[in-house]
Amino acid sequence: MSEQPSDDSADGAKRPRADPWAAQMDALGEFIRAQRHLANLSLREMAGLTRVSNAYLSQIERGLHQPSLKVLRSIADALHLSTEQMLAQAGWMMSGNGHSPDPPEPPVDTEGCIRRDPRLSPAQREALIGVYRSFLDGSSPA
Which residue among 9, 20, 78, 120 is least packed, with the fewest CB closer than 10 Å? Predict the structure, then answer.
């Protein structure tokens, strides 16, 4: 089995050229580092919050190791992010069809749905819309 030629990265690590997995690991590491900096956490502080060694966290940030889901969860918790955000940032979230996730759906037209519901009388529709609007703007129902 032949190996691909390798590049020396800025941190001295050898990686196969054009390796998409390495690119994902690099992107995840950069994202984690940026989020840690935004949270004003040192590696040592983050290690304490995650119960992962600062040396291992450093290797993850440099794209040298693939963290387990358990480690990703602890990093996400320490950074006040969801695990899904971490997985999506890493390019690991897939939809049910095996492709990248679909773009988020537009918000539902709640008032339109209420107005079209045949189970409600006109008076019920207006009352429900009034309550809905009161939740949105913080005022009392009309």
Answer: 20
